[in-house]
Design a protein that fits this description.
11% strand; single chain; 128 residues; binds zinc ion
């Protein structure tokens, strides 16, 4: 039904410019988001400031890029450690033996939601 289609919320697929995470943004929340959330947006802004300052301190672009990569690497390591803590289900396994605990929340593609308002919607293919 055409009416049902109109009620569908369409989600744009986007990739966070900072952490690379795939996220969805609905038409209503669409503001050309480049980041998966507020945390990444703020971090990107902070980094841009730092990058700006660094450019003046170190004119060598190669070194700047290396420093940014290094920073990203360190942050990924920290994130991995944090996730490891979260996904440590040893206690849960003891409390609920035999219960299957997924390593990480599975991405359910049939129930994608806008990351900004949480409404479920249909993902539209990337249009360039
Ligand atoms: Zn992000
Ligand atoms: Zn939304």
């Amino acid at each position: 039904m055409a009416a049902a289609l109109q009620l569908q919320l369409f989600l744009r697929v986007a990739f966070c410019a900072l952490c690379g995470e795939m996220f969805f943004v609905c038409r209503r929340c669409e503001r050309g988001q480049r980041y998966c959330g507020t945390a990444c947006r703020q971090e990107a802004r902070r980094r841009k400031c730092r990058e700006y300052n660094r450019k003046y301190q170190d004119k060598k672009k190669g070194r700047l890029k290396h420093a940014l990569r290094q920073e990203a690497f360190v942050q990924r390591q920290a994130l991995a450690r944090a996730l490891k803590k979260v996904t440590d289900h040893s206690l849960e396994k003891r409390l609920f033996p035999g219960k299957l605990v997924p390593e990480q929340p599975a991405r359910v593609h049939s129930m994608n939601r806008c990351w900004f308002c949480g409404r479920p919607g249909v993902v539209i293919p990337l249009i360039r």
